[in-house]
Structures are given as C-alpha cells and as structure tokens.
Amino acid sequence: MSKVLLVEDEQVLSSAFKLVLEKAGYKVKTASDGMQALELTTAFKPDLILLDLLMPVMDGFEFLRKFNIQTPKSRPVIVVLSNLQDDKNIKMTKDLGVQEYIVKSELTPSSLVAIVRQHTA
Amino acid sequence: MQQEDHYDLITVIKQLQESAKETVEERIKAEALFTSIGDGAMVTDEKGRVTKVNKTALELLGFSRKELMGKWFPGAVVALNSEGEPIEAMERPLTLVFLSGKTVSQKARYVKKDGGQLPVYITVSPIVLEDKPIGAIEVFRDISREDEIDRLKSEFISTASHQLRTPLSAINTYANMLSGGFQGELTKGQEKYLNIIIKASARMNELISTLLDISRIEAGKISHNPEKIDILALINGIITEQKRMAEIKKIKITVQHKKNLPVVISDPLLLGEIYSNLISNAIKYTPKKGRVDIELKVSQNELIFSVKDTGYGIPAALHNRIFTKFFRAENAARHETTGTGLGLYLAWQIAEVLGGRLWFKSRENVGSTFYFALPIEADST
User: CATH number of the domain at B37-142, out of 3.40.640.10, 3.30.750.24, 3.90.25.10, 3.30.450.20?
Assistant: First the structure.
C-alpha cells in the first residue's frame, strides 16, 4: 500500500483529500505545516508528498529547502497542490525538486486519485 | 554695372540675409524645442553615436553631456529586459531601427550612472534625408510610476485570486465528493442541483485563471516558450475538450486543411489558448444544430487558422469593441449568459505576444469567422 503525506493547513480540504485517498486504497498521514511535515517524512517515510505552499509556521518553500538538505537520497515524489499560480512560484518549486504543480481549486476527487496513482505506480 | 543690376543684387543680398536669419531662428527654435521635451531625448548619427542629448535625458540617466556625446549609445547605457537581463545590442531599438528603417518602441530598464535602474518606454525613429538614413532620434519616458501601479495591480490580482480560490477548492471538492457518492446515493434532483454547483465553481475557476492570465500578460510576465508544434494534434485536442458542449447543442464541427501542414514553432500553451478561445466562442454563440467550420491555410509566411460559425453574429456597430476588456455584445449575452467578456481580449493580447494577427468578419444573425495568422518560417513546409 503506497503511503501519501498530505501537507495542508486548511482542515476542510485536508480531511476531504484524506478521505478520498484512503477510499482509493492509500495510507495517508496529514501535516498542517512544513515543520510537522519534516518530522513526519522521517517517521512515516511517504512514497509521495502532496504539498501546499502557503502555510503557517513553515511554508512549502521553506519545507522544500530543508527537506532537500535532510533527505538527499531515495526521496519521495513531491507534488505541489496550491492555489498560487504564477510562473515565478512554479519555477521556484520545480527548481526545488517538485515533480508536478497542480492548481488546487481545479482538482476533483477523481483527478486527485489519478495524480497520486500516476506518481506512485 | 548698371543701376538696375545693382538694385537687384542688393535685393538678393537682403533676401539671403533674411533667409539666413530665418534659418538661424529656426535652428534656435528647433534646439529649444528639443531641449524642452519633457521626456529624455537624443539624436544619433547613422552609426548610433550620440550627437545631441537633452537635459531631461541627462537628468534621468545621471550622465553628463560629455560622457554620452560621441559615444555609441547601446554601449554607453546598458538596457535590461523585464527579467533583469541585459538586452543584446542587436535587440536594442536603436539597432532595430537601423536594420528595419521603421520606428521601434520597447519597454526596458536603463541602468543609470549610479547603478540604479530606470523603467522607460523607448521610441526610436530613423532620420531620413533624401531617402538615406542619416541617424535616429530616440525619446524615452520615465515609466516608474506606471510600473509601480502595474506591480501593485498584479500583486493584488495574484493575492485576490489565491484568496478566492481557497473557498472555491472546498466547494469544488465537497460538491464532487457528494456527486461521487461519498455520502450515499443521490436522488435525481440532488444530482441536478449538485451539477449546477460543480459547473458554477468550474466557471468561477476559469474566470480567476483568465484574470490571472490577463494580469500576467499585461505586466509582460507571460513566459513564451516556443517549440515545434503538431498543429493538427493541438486543434484536435481542443475539439475533444469541447466536444461535449457541441454534442449537447447538436453542432457539427469540421476541420479542413491541406495535406502537408508546415512545421510550426510557437508556444503551444499560448497558441492553444487562442485556438481554444475562438473555437469555444464559435460553439457557445451558435444556436442549436448549427455548424462550426475550422480551416487551416498557408498564405505567404503565415499559417492562417479560421473558425466560421452559423451563430448570432456581431452587430456592425459593435465590431470595433469586440477585443476590448469585459465587452460582450448584447445579442450574444442574451442567448449565452455565461461569458466573461475576457476571452477575446486575452486572445488579442496573446496574439501580440506571438507576433500574430487576429481579426474577424461577422454579420448579425448570419454568423462570424474569426482568423488568426501566425508567422511561420518561409521554408518550413
């Protein structure tokens, strides 16, 4: 069973995405900021991280920088789910090792499952 | 010498003196005019060396007259593009004017003597004497304030879009979850209402994306990544995306093209946005059982895409407003309430980025044909 770490500060979205992914057969843990996510990457060892960018305590960009130093080898795939949509942020996350950038408000439960399936296959 | 000749000579000398005085006065006036221009202005010779520069230009750039006079301007003052990279000499308006013989305008940032940057709008025109270019005149305007307003506007739109999308994500996710049976089976009525919510949230999303695109394009921030494009695959992909809307309205879509289409090098996302906009408008503003005919033609050095519909058409009095922001023709809005009035404006802006031409022909109650001509390489067939 593939493991997904969902990093999202909006509780309403976090619980919905968790429910959708668990129903599709994934093991899901959630973190509400980058700091919690960093701790969970070591303990949970996810195959995929779904990462929001604008979060309190530690945002997604900071998480990526710290994560890149902390986990140099056998890193999980990271997909950004954000409602920010400008070329500068997209490029910055790609430079920080993100595989895909998804605009969150365009996501549906079935497209979320399809994205996770594609990256954990 | 006879007296008559003597008088003639005096008249001629007087006339010459008068004319010389007028010439000097004209020169002084021209000089004063040049010096008083509120924008930075300078004149170069045919090699781009500064021969005249006004006070405003010196004040704006921080250089002394001595530091610029006689210097090759692209070498003396560095210009940066919107990314902050130096603009190559070959791409500077002064060079482009000498190459094309036409007036060239450009937005750039001049690097001042103290290292600071000055956002400017530059216009350079050739000076032609007896059909020969003898130099160029450059006028540049300080657009710091406009730039700042643009930056604040973009920042506002970007933040507002993000904030609008946050609740929209929840609406979209939960509505789709309900529709997907996460809370049990739905009645037909519940499903119908949910579909309305899902469609409305998709429209809202689309509107926000369009606003973001416009704000990026207006700020000159849109990235243009040209690559080889399979034009037919691009168009067929767009038709597949919009097939459902055409099927519901029983609209027939056809595509005509010659066998060997040229290799097109352009940005697929931007080009797709124009095609998609024109095709979806054709479907949207055509009544049931109508036709939408797409055609691809090659004419000289352009690939001409056209989409012809049997739709409501645009009243002649409104033709000149069709590409303006938020404009919707009343007759179209009466039939189709979901448009934003931004699609054609965005297409027009993108057409400019791609260096193409966008135009249309239309008759009310008969239909419209929209054309987009994209420049292609001469030997790319």
Answer: 3.30.450.20
